[in-house]
Amino acid sequence: MTKLNGINRIKIAVFISGKGSNLKNLIKFSHKKNSKFIISLIVSNNSTAKGLRYANIYKINKKVIKFRNNKKVEDLLIKRLKKSQIKIICLAGFMKILSKRFIQNFKGIILNIHPSLLPKYKGLNTHHKAILNKDKYSGCTVHFASPKLDSGKIILQKKIKIFKKDTPKTLASRILKQEHIIYPKALNKIISNL
Ligand code: GRF
Q: Any catalytic annotation for residue 114?
């Protein structure tokens, strides 16, 4: 917890692997006057992740880690998270599965955003699957991370219509806009209940 402008703010780490639009959006929300959180650390398994540039732009600490289910590496990361007093990890386009051991040893909360209406379409290519199955709706889900892929308890979901002319690309871009709305909302909900 850190105090900024008279408000106690929870320290968050965001884990990314790619573009980082959800990261950028969470940073934007963290800069709001009454924000209850601050992004203190950005972690990536990918040294070339485009989203890492936000660490430089917004002067946030970053750490690139080769996640290979390596106990030593995991322990070092947990140590770092503890040292930085991180209470919540937000996975945002993070393409590695965290080990059961890591999830249990990190004593805080881990959230994930997934581009489908879970429990439908866990894993990759969610938009492609929804269109192929001629689904009428798709959407996105914020949920607690658990050792099983995309399976933890659901916190918030947003449903949107799939149009006949949709391609995985057009659908992904409409859903991403909704992700940017529900991720900060879900995070604030969790923080309010702490
Ligand atoms: C998002 O659709 C997220 O739900 C999925 O990967 C994408 C990441 O986008 N897990 P970004 O890196 O936040 O732009």
A: yes
